[in-house]
Design goal:
Chains A, B, C, D: Keywords: Flavoprotein, FMN. The structure is a homotetramer. By secondary structure, chain A is an alpha/beta fold. Chain A has helices at about 15-25, 60-65, 85-90, 95, 105-110, 125-130, 130-145, 165-170; strands at about 5, 30-35, 70-80, 80-85, 115-120, 145-155.
């Protein structure tokens, strides 16, 4: 099983990244840092006759990467009780991929995959991060992606995730495909 | 009471906009279409010694508008079970405003306001939009903003909101400050 | 379409009952007040060889009533952010009906029905009642029951529901089968 | 810190009980099996002039036990995406204790405590159990009880919890007061 980890944080070497490595060590997966790519926000052209215009950014390269793996791990800090911008922009643009004639089986292909979520927040994340878990689950359900599990860590300041033993422990057994 | 409606949609004259006008007619409030403004996505510099860099976009002008009103209505289509990008980017950047010495009372000022939410989605929105309601509520709780209520409409295609009588009816009595 | 309203409250003529009548007037449906029936709480015998013992109470009579209608309205006050006891006990016992050889098609039959929820609570019910809406939705999903909609009213003391105009209005257009 | 575990299951030696012992071994806490006590369901007399009648069951004895401990662990199977009956009945009756002149400081005393939740379900419990986590959290918030954390295990049949290594592992580090 090939694993890809999509890092949503805008900060390098942040708490979420640290927790993600506990779940999926660097050398056991493809790690993709969305902040390093140019992904344009979506404009909703689903309902215009001409459809979505071509956008010349890195989105399709990332989609190809995603489709080439079996297990998808989405790791994101919790920003205002939602996912970080780079991850949301990446996922929003899937709407466009679904209408791209070069990706006729996009939804079906995603439906063969399994997803894990890794979240880190500072304000009671194991409670206030639950709407985000529900949102991510609805996204997966739409595509038929199986949800394998999730870990929510707590950290208010850089580096503090090392003190959340419970989350670190949980991360280390999260991705059952690694065991 | 002065009312401002923040429209999050990337599409003009969409279903959400229609529903929002039912709640707050055009001539009874300041209507702000976030898509018409340049708002840069946040990069998390909360924890760097130098803090956030100045960003020369329209964010602070919008923040000033927001602070000049008593009632804030956030109207957004449900994109992937979350809020639309322009609204999320606007809210994300509030983190930066909280650290801006020109806005020393930002959080307290928001705490005197009241918010309403207007959502429209195509996939069982009255159920699958609930995590978004919870997320928006957590955001308001953080600032002390009182949540006045919300309406969730259903529309899969442009213009279809006119058939969601229940949502239209609910919108027309939503903003109690109008009554 | 035949409509049955299941009232979960332990109090007579309470706020929830009032709101339910706005949605489904007394003379347009079968109104069942669960408090008037003897329904024993479930003991989990799903996994014992002998299975569930026969229980001589009113549960099966109520189940028969339920199956004889097309539209099911569940009206309950929000007690500690969940449904009232009589309704929970009634639903819990469905587990037993599913194993009752006299009801071989119980789940399938429920799957042809449509449900509405009417909730009334005193502590920010339109927000803190959402987990209950989600719970009721999961229950319906299990059986394949379509969720038609819901209304959440606010009332802290007896009779106060008359002041929640928004909920009363919403209730009056809730059950689309009545229109 | 004195720990009390309230077991909500109607079955002896079930999966939830097993998981609870992983979190809080038998000899390190007071374990209370609610099914062994007589707790009458609440009837809502909050708003009648004479108030709640005295009920001669075991509720107040259990309340005394609860108040005599610092850490409260609520362990319940997920029945229809909610808590088990005995636990709900116990909690529902707290409404009555709050009006009992013999317990004038009930709410304040609870506000000094910390709670943990242990849930086990069979149908995607780490997702479909989240409304129950939210409900339990709202209950704790009402009383000012701090939520220390929770574990959700998956088991469809008796004994199957032994295969949910992730939950067992998480349980073993759940109650930080034990460490």
């Amino acid at each position: 099983m090939k694993i890809a980890v999509f890092h949503g944080s805008t900060r390098e070497k942040g708490n979420t990244e640290y927790l993600a490595y506990k779940a999926v060590p660097k050398d056991q997966a493809t790690h993709i840092y969305l902040r390093d790519y140019n992904i344009q926000p979506i404009t909703d052209f689903r309902h215009t006759p001409e459809g979505f215009p071509d956008i010349h950014d890195d989105q399709l390269q990332l989609v190809d990467q995603m489709l080439a793996h079996d297990i998808l791990v989405f790791a994101t800090p919790i920003y205002w009780y939602g996912m970080a911008g780079p991850l949301k922009v990446f996922i929003d643009r899937w709407s466009q991929v679904m209408r791209d004639p070069n990706y006729p089986h996009f939804r079906e292909e995603l439906g063969n995959k399994k997803a894990y979520f890794i979240l880190v927040g500072g304000d009671q994340p194991t409670i206030k991060g639950l709407p985000l878990i529900q949102q991510l689950t609805y996204i997966c359900q739409f595509y038929g992606i199986k949800v394998g599990g999730y870990v929510i860590g707590e950290a208010r300041k850089p580096g503090m995730i090392v003190h959340d033993n419970r989350a670190l422990e949980a991360a280390s057994t999260l991705v059952s495909e690694l065991q």
